[in-house]
Amino acid sequence: MGERPIQVQLRSFCLADVDDFYEWASDEEVTRFMTWELFKSKQQAREYVANVVIPHHWFKAICIQGSNKAIGHIMLEQGSGMNSCRAEMGYAISRKYWKMGVTTQAVITAIKIGSKELQGITRIEALVLPENVASARVLEKAGFIKEGLLRNYVYLKGSLRDCFLFSFVVTSPAH
Q: Given the DSSP bridges, would you call strands 86-93 and 123-128 parallel, antiparallel or unpaired?
């Protein structure tokens, strides 16, 4: 008999989440594959949450169902103009919750909610560095397809990097 997966809920961030956010955003292992540098002070984290996270259209806290503690984040960034049919997904989670299925559950939940809330979304994309095997596995378990390798695609922490492109095609608005 298999274990029941941990249930997650997604909610909007508030300033009271700064300590929780700082817990994973200041961890070198968690931020190793992130586009942003790790946070070195709670004040820096507070400014980011206040000025970037809270005003963002779709930047959610990941919580274990039954708890309000933000253990990670997941975001969708919808394109504009001819790219408005797609959104890019990004996420991070506290190291304490790695290898527990929490991130996969958060991605699945974000697909369900985000595809309804973001008008006209038919495709969700995620970029993953080739050495970030765990993130690639999360996406595959959530139903994403690896479309290919984008060579010399992004500058990440001072170096030009390749990325795998993963996508999830939303089959209907009521997905």
A: parallel
pTM score above 0.85: yes
149: number of Cβ within 10 Å: 11
Write down the residue that tokens 């030009």 correspond to: 160
Q: Where are the domains of the chain?
A: 8-169
Q: Are 173 and 113 in contact (CB under 8 A)?
A: no
CATH for 8-169 is 3.40.630.30
Rounded to the nearest 5°, which phi and psi values hold at 146? Answer: -80, 115
Phi and psi (nearest 5°) for 44?
-60, -40
Pick the closest to residue 65 from 5, 6, 2 (CA basis): 6
The model's pLDDT over 64-76, given as tens digits with 9 standing for 90+, comes to: 988 999 999 999 9
Burial class (CB in 10 A: 0-12, 13-18, 19+), 132: middle
User: If you write DSSP's letter for every residue of 71-107 in order, what string do you get?
Assistant: -EEEEEEE--GGGTTEEEEEEEE-GGGTTTTHHHHHH
